[in-house]
Amino acid sequence: MRIDPRTLRLFLAVCREGTISGAARAEHLSQPSVSVAINQLERVLQTTLFTRNRQGIELTQAGIALEMKARAVESLLHSAQEEIQLLAEDIGGPLTIGGTPGALSTTMGRFIGGFSAEHPRFKLRILERPDAVVQNMLRSYEIDLAIVTSGMRESNEEFREQPVLSDPFSVIVGPGNEHLGDAVQLSNLTDMHWVLPDAVGGFRKQIDALFINSDARLPANVILSDSILSTKAIVKHSQYITILPNELVSTEIHAGSLRAVRIEGINFQRKVGLLWMAERQLPPIAQAFVDFVVSHTNP
Length: 299
Hints:
Elements: H1 5-17, H2 20-27, H3 31-45, E1 50-53, E2 56-59, H4 61-87, E3 92-99, H5 101-118, E4 122-128, H6 131-139, E5 145-149, E6 159-173, E7 183-184, E8 194-196, H7 202-213, E9 222-224, H8 228-236, E10 241-245, H9 250-255, E11 259-263, E12 269-277, H10 284-295
Parallel strand pairs: 3-4, 3-5, 7-11, 8-9, 8-10
Antiparallel strand pairs: 1-2, 5-12, 6-10, 6-11, 6-12
């Protein structure tokens, strides 16, 4: 027996709403109809997908696995419908790229101009998300490609990773720290006011590695911020300092509002790469973007 796509849609509704009754309201069906559909799905799969409690439902391991695959099916159907509609207007896509803010900013700023010159008509969505969220969005096919800090995750056959660029880290300071020279040791700065990333992702792991390799303890007097814009604004208008890749602050450095201070004794660069599902054949526009970026960079 094969899975009925209608029962898969109702299963996703239950996952989203958290209860059978909520899913029934969302899908404009009776509660018994949804219950029957879920029971049918469980019979086909010969497993229990969730348990019921006072708060609603709790997915089993099988339910968690099915939810990811069901979301991928739903994403592919939506993408297929949109792709056909765009083809009628001679527009490529849709291409959906997710990633962490700094990696997206660096990569898209460097490559999108040239890519759009070769592919002048396409639809692109760019979504900023934390590293772990981005990986789950790849698994559910909600995004085609991810642009993330690379080289910090264990080898995983689930994904394909293509490094595309690297950029040195510097201590970034504003006018309030003019006393700092052109080069510093991190061990001498740990008692200063810092702004550092909050999310535990590849970018934060690279920054932590800088302190470890410098035999410096992590700062305690710190503002945790995952916003690149907020981080730069705080450093620009206060005595706080941060660590960022040079390219992320190149505009401010050229304008003189921020300054990059070299980290002594460390030759460590931030690496950014493309990430996608190994099992997936990429849509033509996504494959074209990968090919363009790889052919126009020297990681």
